[in-house]
Amino acid sequence: MSTVFTRIIDGELPGRFVYRDDEVVAFLTIEPVAYGHVLVVPVEEVDRWTDAAPALWARLNEVAQMVGRAVIEAFGSPRAGYLIAGFEVPHAHIHVFPAADMSGYSLDAVIRDPDPAEMDAAAERLRAALGTDAAGRPA
């Protein structure tokens, strides 16, 4: 059975994509620690990050770093947070989010009912910084 992330990647569930290539996608999480909180996910279903092939793990981190730079640019944050948890969905993913302090590193502090307009605006800001279209592909 497909994970919720695979269903988002395949278009069965909605997602606010900011980046996409053949191996890796990046989309906004539905419960962000801050607006601009992105999940960087392999297209291939890999449960634990420790199970990813080295080349795939390298590509995930390449994209996470690119998204991190976009987060800093788009939101003016002093840092981009980076977190691997992986208990919510059995599909490896990296959390990348605007960070001014350590508060974003607690996923207990998420915005449970984010404003859809704010989420759309955050996705647009990130796509502009990344130079991608609404599907996350290079514009």
Report on the structure:
This is HIT family hydrolase. GO terms for molecular function: hydrolase activity. InterPro entries: Histidine_triad_HIT, HIT-like, HIT-like_sf. Keywords: Hydrolase. There is one protein chain. By secondary structure, the chain is an alpha+beta fold. The chain is built from 3 helices and 5 strands. 31% of the residues lie in helices and 18% in strands. Helix 2 packs across helix 3. A hairpin with a 3-residue loop joins strand 1 and strand 2. Strands 1-2-3-5-4 form a 5-stranded antiparallel sheet. The protein has one domain: HIT-like (HIT family, subunit A, 2-Layer Sandwich).
Strands of the widest sheet, in order across it, are 1-2-3-5-4
Tally of structural domains: 1
**Which stretches are poorly predicted, pLDDT < 50 over at least 5 residues?**
none
Q: Can you tell me the CATH topology?
A: HIT family, subunit A
Main β sheet profile = 5 strands, antiparallel
Helix content: 25-40%
Sheet-strand content, in percent, reads 15-25%
Order of helices and strands: HEEEHEEH
How big is the Rg? Answer: 14 Å
First-last Cα distance: 33 Å
Overall 3D shape:
globular
Write down the overall mean pLDDT.
Answer: 96
CATH homologous superfamily?
HIT-like
Instruction: Give the total of beta strands.
Output: 5
CATH class equals: Alpha Beta
Number of distinct helices: 3
Global structural class: alpha+beta
Which CATH-level-2 architecture? 2-Layer Sandwich
Motif (Histidine triad motif): 91-95
Organism: Corynebacterium sphenisci DSM 44792
Active site: 93 (tele-amp-histidine intermediate)
Protein name: HIT family hydrolase
